[in-house]
Amino acid sequence: MTDYLDGALSASDRAKFDQHMQGCDGCRAYLAQLRIARRLMGRIASEPVPDPLKVELINAFRTWKAG
Ligand SMILES: [Zn+2]
Q: With pLDDT > 90 as the criterion, what percentage of the chain qualifies?
């Protein structure tokens, strides 16, 4: 999944992955969440984040992992 986002899969693996995604709602939802999470993490890395927001993000991550 992360290799896919990084563009690190080989062409054949990527084709298999795309094929699976077309038929799998669970993986599509997971990939969408992963994309959002990465965008948020990128922002955290590049900008100072006020503490309350940090806590909120950590809680959101816990909830997401648990669910
Ligand atoms: Zn799947």
A: 37
Packed helices 51-66 and 25-46: angle between N→C axes, nearest 10 degrees: 160
**Which amino acid type is present at position 49?**
V
Please report, for the chain, the start and end positions of each structural domain, with discontinuous segments joined by +.
2-66
Q: Of 34, 35, 27, 38, which Cα lies nearest the Cα of 18?
A: 27
Q: Return residues with CB closer than 5 A to ligand 1 (ion).
A: 24, 27
Span from the CA of 55 to the centroid of ligand 1 (angstroms): 30
Q: How far apart, in whole angstroms, are the C-alpha atoms of residue 15 and residue 60? A: 32
- pLDDT category at 61 given cuts 50, 70, 90 is confident
